[in-house]
Amino acid sequence: MAHVSLEVAERRKAWSFVAPALVWTFVFFVAPFLFMAAMSLWEQQGGGIVRVWKLNNYIAFFEKDALFRGLTNSLEITAIVTVFSILLAYPLAWIIAERVPQKYQRTALILAILPFWTSYVVRSYSWLLVLSRNGVINQALLNLGVISEPLELASNRTATVIGFVHFFVMLLTLTIYANLVQLSPNYRRAAADLGANAFQTFWHVILPLTMPGIMTGAFLTFVLCIGDYVTPQILGGNNELVLPQIIMLQLGRRADFPMAAALSIILMLVVTAAYIACARWLKIERT
Amino acid sequence: MTAPVSIENATKTFASFTALDNVSLNINAGEFIVLLGPSGCGKTTLLSILGGFLQPTKGRILIGGKEMTGVPPAKRPTTTMFQDYALFPHMKLKDNVGFGLRMRGIGKPEREQRAKVFLDLVGLKASADKKPHELSGGQRQRVALARALAVDPDVLLLDEPLGALDLKLRRQMQDELKAIQKRVGTTFVHVTHDQEEAMAIADRIVVMNQGKIEDFGPPSEIYMRPRSLFAAGFMGEVNFIEGTIRDVDGTQAIVETALGKVALPKSCFTAGMPCIGQATTLCIRPEHFRRAGEGNGPATALGQATVSGSAFFGTHYRCHLTPTGAPQMRIVAHMPQSAAVMEGQAVMLAVNVGDIVALPPKQA
Amino acid sequence: MARNRLTNFVSSVYAVLIFGFIFLPVIMLVLFSFQDGRLPVSPFNGFSLQWYEAVFADRKLMSALLHSFLVATISSLVACLLGFFAAYGLARFKLPGSALQRGLLIAPMTVSYLIIALGLLSVLNVLGIGLSLWTVGIGHVVINLPLCFAIIYSSMGDQHINIERAARDLGASDIKVMALVTAPMLLPSLLASFFLSMTFSWDEFIIAFLLSRFDVTLPVEIWSLLRSGLNPKTNAIGSLVFLVSVVLLIVLELFLFGRTKKS
Hints:
The complex is a heterotrimer.
Chain A lengths: L1 H38 L3 E3 L2 E3 L5 H8 L1 H34 L3 H11 L7 H12 L4 H9 L12 H25 L3 H9 L4 H12 L1 H16 L3 H6 L7 H10 L4 H30 L1
Antiparallel strand pairs in A: 1-2
Helix pairs in contact in A: 2-3, 3-7, 3-10, 3-12, 5-7, 7-10, 8-9, 10-13, 12-13
Chain B lengths: L4 E10 L2 E11 L4 E5 L6 H9 L6 E6 L2 E2 L10 E4 L11 H5 L1 H5 L4 H14 L15 H14 L4 E5 L7 H18 L2 E6 L2 H7 L2 E6 L2 E6 L1 H6 L4 H7 L3 E10 L3 E6 L2 E6 L13 E6 L4 E3 L8 E13 L3 E8 L7 E6 L9 E6 L5 E3 L5
Parallel strand pairs in B: 3-8, 3-9, 6-7, 7-8
Antiparallel strand pairs in B: 1-2, 1-4, 4-5, 9-10, 11-12, 11-14, 12-13, 14-20, 15-19, 16-17, 16-19, 17-18
Chain C lengths: L1 H32 L16 H8 L1 H34 L5 H9 L6 H15 L5 H23 L3 H11 L4 H12 L1 H17 L2 H6 L6 H10 L4 H31 L1
Helix pairs in contact in C: 1-12, 2-12, 3-6, 3-9, 3-11, 5-6, 6-9, 7-8
């Protein structure tokens, strides 16, 4: 008798520990998300929201060029940003892991990611400074006589890409470095021992073994980049809007919550697809 | 194939620490050499220098008669079997074993063929398409061996390869290593701190301590006729008994010890001829002590001793004895299985002088 | 040897270039915060502290700073507490569907902040609840709870169980065990998750933007500043935030580094 109630009491205790966090997550995350999913099937009509329960918003997404373009722009920009960030970050991670003396590696790494600690908004803004007509780059090019008129560097897709790459190079340097540094030095020795030169060792052994670091960083880059509103808004200049900007537009003037919800669901689906692809790749790598 | 190795006056210093101190060694082609010693004795440093991963501060390395001192690992006719195996986790076994062949520009069908031959040599042909993480520790080690042999090196360097295995597996691998070495005929240089392992597999053992070679020779030589106190103590249990040389003549020397006077044939002095008045340390192994009157052969009496403790070890009793004539001394001796040993028992000790080794005492 | 020198040279050049790329905007930011003039771009007219004065004189900016601090501190505390209790419950007891529960608690980490903000905004609109710093705080707990939970849960190793058992054996009640034994043992991960949450909350924009009304946090206030064009005042506040973060980082490095050295 007493034994049974002890077990029940234990379980009740356990639930009471976990319950607050679960309740919070459910009330402030799951429920709003479900509500938003439901709302994506409704419609904004006149001043209010009508519960239509139709896929109209989604259909509009595929039909309206302005809306669909948002997704394609997002995907294109994210792809370019991911590729460039990997290409720029890998050598830096490699230099810190291989060329910098052990005791300075931590300092070098922290230096490499120091701008992380400027506010994200301020960081994008500072690229506006650099790329603007009076900014450093234009001034330098003018002084060197390379150009006679300032270039329009800010307020376009290139500026957005630069702003993103700046951020994600730091992130990828971190993940690739972490991967590089935990590789046993004996891999390199074994490869050299068996006749491989430096390039062959890198290509056949080191690069494949750092794939996890690259893929982790690439996945984070994808998810964060495609869902970002700040950098495109500051640097993109109102051309070639990305999906988050279009979502925010729905909220602004038109207060079209159902449409914003539908677009958000679509964004979520894209991110989920990326997550599944990455998980599957990781599973393949494990076996 | 195979080749002799010659190390001439190799010294290696790291800042203030001397890892190797003027080490010279000649290894014959096809020999199984074991570098034996405690941690920090320089054996791994020497192996790394042979492999080309470290450069000696002074001295030369010759392999097959050719100067190899500055040659990088890729260009040396050596391969190394690493302590953590260092198998490439993302490659199948056949690609691991074939890696060296691929670096030599050998085409895919031929190198897969050769890889399978070497996997067969270590008994893993059926697993050619598996990846390292699917194997056990012992199997991975065999793959590492196959990979190292696949490029047909003159010298194979083994860096404590059996350390991570359990006892039974270790014994099995020792036999296999020995058998494979005999088959391929390559010179093997094997590093370990386990003297039992060294004796099991070596053709000759190099005992090292603090960057110097203490002794070098076949296992039986080193065990029975050590040439330094360190080697004597490292190879197994030994009793050190101080003494002074009182008299020397043509064939023997008289040494006075706390256990009495002993007449030793000159052959007992493995590290230099005896001189009158010299201090010396007698090394007697526990299994060489006998009770007076037992056993065959001539025996010299060493006085009476009391048993102060004993433990039964299956094949023998391991006893602590306190000599009556020298109560501050502790002697470890093995008594036969059949002996009824009891604490407090008085025993008359004896030893065959041929089993004794006399060495110069430790430099203070 | 020659090849080694070549790779060293190329590596150095690359390192300089890329560090230059990484630091270029930050240098411009800080440099032009001292601009003696109206525009935070070339030419650099001279050294002046006027914009820093302007920042400190800006009431809205200063109160936004305070708001950020309050929201960050309180939401991180809540996230840490909830995460700690949940981690304790799931790590120390056998509950049915624990894998599902853990998945649920970590799920918000995989969703874009924009979507989390929109979800909360929609619900708040429908329920007629007004936006405020509290709603921002709720959003920040949502994004930081998974992090705190994950960090603390992964640090609750089995080696701690026996220590807790010993404490119970000696007569301590559950709360006492948690407060006097478990929490101190987990202090590093508790502190880590708290400070990480503070960092994320402090810098977070989109949730703060969408879920606040009159009282805003610093990133949102800076955003409003941006509306008025390029302004050295923005440089000044940005540089201040950066400076504070760097100083904190140095302090943490020295403090933590000193700790790990001793242990």
